[in-house]
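Fold these two proteins, one after the other.
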Amino acid sequence: MTTSTNTPDELTMTIELPRLIVWFMLVPLALGLLIGLLTLFSGDFTEGLLLIIILGGLGSVGYYVLTQRTHLHLHRLAGRVTIQRVTALETTEREYPLEHLDCAEVESTRRYDSGPGGGVSRPTSNVQLVFRHTSPATRIPLTRWSVSGGGSGELANTINDWLRQARESAAKNPSQRT
């Protein structure tokens, strides 16, 4: 998470996986592709081609999933929330009225990993924007992936603190939009 603007009138954030994680996930696939190429050129055409196709497909899907970014822009004076999702293939952008945004919540889930020492339940979380103008409330996840650790809570707290300050500022100066 990177906050580029945090003023009483505007909050702009970029949410993405750290590049180090992306490299740790994709470098082994690149090495596998290199081994596939070496196998292909050493004369074992079928095995090398199969290795290249499988690892190339996994690498492409992994790159697409791991490099997704979300740009969140809350603008008090314009009265809008903009969520822009950027992937390797497309960019989508949606706008919502800021007055309908109630808060940001952390949705926690538990993932069960079975391992050699027995199963372990690991908590993961994802931040969702909650718009309570509908019944039931509309929840929009900021990312398509969940993470473990405290980053989601920090992100939700930053958004909620900004919303609180924007509402207080609007209450002091009712002529400006919220």
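Now the second one:
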Amino acid sequence: MPIFNVLSGVMTSGNQNCAVHPLTGAVLTSNKWVDTITVTGGLLDGTHEILDTGNDRICVLKFDTAILDRIFLEYDEDGSGMTAFNAMICGY
């Protein structure tokens, strides 16, 4: 099963609280939304949109997932929040 790096880059947390998990509805504490996303490479680099970046709200990374079987998103975090991400295609 091949794995390809779809997108990679840098993201930073903002000050906007995320009080409810967007998929499960679970109540969250001390969670922040991503404020800024910068894509630096990957197979879909140049075919994506970054919406509402740097406005201390909810930044969104948008790309076409119609060709993908599964997506795995990995991010690194330090004391100040999220710092880097990799989105991978997993499947065949």
